[in-house]
Write a structure and sequence with these properties.
Number of domains: 3
Shape: extended
Radius of gyration: 28 Å
Strand content: 15-25%
Oligomer: single chain
Number of helices: 5
Helix content: 25-40%
Order of helices and strands: EEEHHEEEEHHEEEH
Length: 322
Amino acid sequence: MGFFSYICKECGHSILSPYSVDPEINAWMKDAVVLSPCGSRVIGEYDGYGRVGGGYEDDHSYDGVWLHQACWEKAGKPEYDHYDGPSKGADDQGYFFRYEHDVIDPRITDLAERVRLLDEGKTARAQRWYDGHATDVYEWLYEAPEWKDPEDVKEPWRQRFSYRESIAWDEEKDEPLLDENGKRYKEGFNIWDKLDSDAEYPKFMGTENELKAHLAAKWATFVESDECRAYIVRAEELRGEARLRRLAELKEEGRYEASRRLVRLDDGKMQAMWYVEDKMHYQKVGNEHPGTWGRDEVQKDAKRLNDEWAAAGYPWEEREDN
């Protein structure tokens, strides 16, 4: 089952999936109230798939009145009979939208405060998007070929751009145009830019090979641009911040720990094999040892390694691939 949702009877906006909200702007829109014609009431977070409050889908979800909890409270918590019938389905499914639901919680009534919160929320969202783009660019340039199967590594420009053939459309009949053979008439290519999903990118009217050359040239220009360099600088900042957070966690919980795995012996019995795991890079350190004796030895080794790491000042060490 895919995403679906309903229109709030008070404000006219969708009940939002928790996977689509902006925390500082419209997170309140995922908290819902469902009023049923039989008088029952369900309150809680909407999961995007028909369930509210972590429970099973309510029997009256399809003929119920759906409201944002904030809107319902602001309206004085009315019952089902206050409304003129059940809520309509939301065309955007509570998930597929851009800015239509940029609305601050209606329980905040001070206008200046609402304006301030909305401005701050938009700024925070723009920064998240930029940081996401920076991370993507860094991975496209430096990481993707290292962990992907060689057969799956795309041409560099495909990291950013994708395309598909465009179907010509008859606006008057609101249906696709057909060629002389009754097949849909293909007219150029539609292009998507992963770094600018809002852009109205012009339709490309050449051949597919010409399109590939065009996108490869745009990618090459981008890689040499100040925009790309700025993304890389920000990505390195984010990686450094993530590294500091991870170091703090490892200092608290210990970088090295005793771990085990079960192996089947020749006689069919299972044997616990113990080893030291380096949680900084999720690597096995040293050899494996069997049984209780192995566990005790590995625990001693883990403590020794943690003590040595602490004595050295908790340095971050680059991963050593086997």
